[in-house]
Specification:
By secondary structure, this protein is α/β, with parallel strands linked by helices. It contains five helices and seven strands.
Amino acid sequence: MKKNIVAILVLLGLVAYGAYDYLKESPAETGQAAGTWDETLPVGLEKGQRAPNFTLTDLEGNAVQLSDFAGKTVMVNFWATWCPPCRVEMPHMQKFYEDYKAKDVVILGVNMTASEQRVDNVEAFVKDEELTFPIVLDEKGEVMKVYQVIAYPTTYLLDSSGKIREKFVGAINYDIMKEAVKKIK
């Protein structure tokens, strides 16, 4: 019971911090979609809109653009190593990625690096959890602001045209991912 209370307090603190950080500055788009995305769709964060494109660096220092995954179903997952619900969700993300990558489904983990104590924590977490899906670092928190992430984890599900089909605030499990992807496949 005590652990549940602590987890709830931590989650409330994260929500409050996210709301404060979001309201402190207004978001701006970081780019345009390319590839086979439906460029006739308006860019935004609502279901049916095209997800804002962004470019971040992965753990090896390579630039990764969201639009690099055009033509695939993408789960964009915003997370942090210190976030208890994020930690619970990661094994589900990894299993789902392993089971669905052959079906053109990608999980793109966006680590909210600006909130981490050190980048080394991210690298160690990825290694310890044996995560093999792409992980990119939002070192300045810019993409987090664009996507208006105020609670961790937050996951956007995009179809192959870049259209937002679902948004999940809070941890999701394998079955939720499976059902959400099944609706758009």
